[in-house]
Amino acid sequence: MNPVDRVRAALAAVGVGDVVLELSESARTAQLAAEAIGAHFGIDVPVGAIVKSLLFLIDGQPVIVLAAGDRNVEQRLLGAAYQVGRKKVKLADAATVLEVTGYEVGGVPPIGHARSLPVVIDESLSRFRTVWAAAGAHHAVFPIEYPRLIEVTSGRLATLTQAPRESQDLSGDKA
Predict the structure, then answer these.
(1) Cβ pair 156, 119 in contact under 8 A
(2) How far is the CA of 58 from the CAs of 79, 142, 155, 162, in angstroms?
(3) Among the listed residues 117, 74, 76, 80, the one whose alpha carbon sits nearest the alpha carbon of residue 96
(4) Which of 47, 55, 141, 169 is deepest in the core (most CB within 10 A)?
(5) Number of helices (H), then strands (E), in the chain
(6) Cα distance between residue 30 and residue 45, in whole Å
(7) What is the number of alpha carbons within 13 Å of residue 50 lying toward its C-beta?
(8) Taken in order 5, 10, 13, 16, is the CA torsion positive or negative?
(9) Which element (helix H / strand E) includes 37?
(10) From CA 70, how far away is CA 77, in angstroms rounded?
(11) Cα 21 to chain centroid, rounded
(12) What pLDDT, in 10s, does the model give residues 133-171?
């Protein structure tokens, strides 16, 4: 079974159904995914509504982290969620991602991995009612409501990112 069909099967197994969309454009990054989904449906899809599925090794143990596409996971916050220092938190390399999840970087879905993995979901995704996640390949995605994502992944919520700082007025003028 190909990777996209494995995601379809995993979604069916949790009662979501076949909601996988195969795009003609690449959705390998959050920005590309937002653009491709937006073009396909003729809608504006915020980059933050794209779920990044990242594999981290925390004290050597693999963990899937789901984060908003417009945020960066802070290793110190992830470490704190597991009560370890930031130095014990490493982003997995591409070979490890493929081996552990069964999917290539850029196509890792939040469910349907090669083995059972703990999932941690960054609370910043709660800004969106519907989020879009990778579905096993660089061109495949699926929509899912945020509460349903938590449910189907059995994800643990944590604060793993910080909001981007607003651009500051560097002119020195005060209003």
Answers:
(1) yes
(2) 7, 28, 16, 20
(3) 117
(4) 141
(5) 5, 8
(6) 10
(7) 29
(8) negative
(9) helix 30-41
(10) 17
(11) 16
(12) 999 999 999 999 999 999 999 999 999 998 776 544 444
pLDDT at residue 172 tops 50: no
Distance CA 104, CA 98 (A): 5
What's the rounded mean pLDDT across residues 8-30? 92
Q: Are 163 and 157 in contact (CB under 8 A)?
A: no
Q: Which residues, in sequence order, are bridge partners of residue 58?
A: 61, 89
DSSP 3-state assignment of 3?
Answer: helix
Backbone angle region of 160, left / alpha / beta, with phi > 0 → left and psi within -120 to 50 → alpha: alpha
The residue type found at 71 is: R
Q: Which helix (DSSP H) or strand (DSSP E) does residue 94 occupy?
A: helix 94-101
CB atoms within 10 A of CB 166: 6
The per-residue pLDDT for range 53-85, each reduced to its tens digit, is 999 999 999 999 999 999 999 999 999 999 999
Paired strand residues for 130: 145
Dihedral sign from CA coordinates of 139, 143, 147, 151: negative
Instruction: Indicate the residue type of 83.
Output: Q
Q: Supply the pTM of this predicted model.
A: 0.90
Q: What single letter denotes the amino acid at residue 14?
A: V
Q: Which has the closest alpha carbon to 56: 31, 30, 29, 82?
A: 82
